[in-house]
Amino acid sequence: MPALYKRVSDIISRIDADFVAIQELDSATVRSNQVVVLNELAKQTQMHATYRASINHQGGKYGIGMLTKEKPLSTEAIPLPGKEEKRSVLILEMNKYVIYCTH
Fold first, then answer.
1. DSSP per residue over 42-59, as a string?
2. CB 21 within 8 Å of CB 64
């Protein structure tokens, strides 16, 4: 695992968060050396990964994601309106709360 992903996963593990929302997330792009970044972080933190691609980028996808300690009960991804770069909102229903992530 590249040092950057290890550093980020170490920080996430150290703060012991119930969930982490991540924006500007590469998935199998040239820039990430075809690594699915969220899956790497999930593996290292032992958290559940949920990803939403917003755009195609450098041979892969680019979007938002969340890592959660517990598996979401349900997930929904909604594209947001606008003429600029495409954006999305990712919604996770958990046992006691709902989480939204957007960029």
1. HHHHT-EEEEEEEEEETT
2. yes
Check if the beta carbon of residue 73 is closer than 8 Å to that of residue 63.
no
Written as tens digits, the pLDDT of the chain (103 aa) is: 578 889 999 999 999 999 999 998 888 778 777 778 899 999 999 999 999 998 777 888 889 999 999 999 999 999 999 988 889 999 999 999 999 999 8
Cα 53 to Cα 13, 24, 92, 95: the distances in Å are: 24, 10, 15, 25
Q: What is the pTM of this model?
A: 0.89
Which residue intervals of 1-103 are DSSP H helices? Answer: 3-15, 37-45
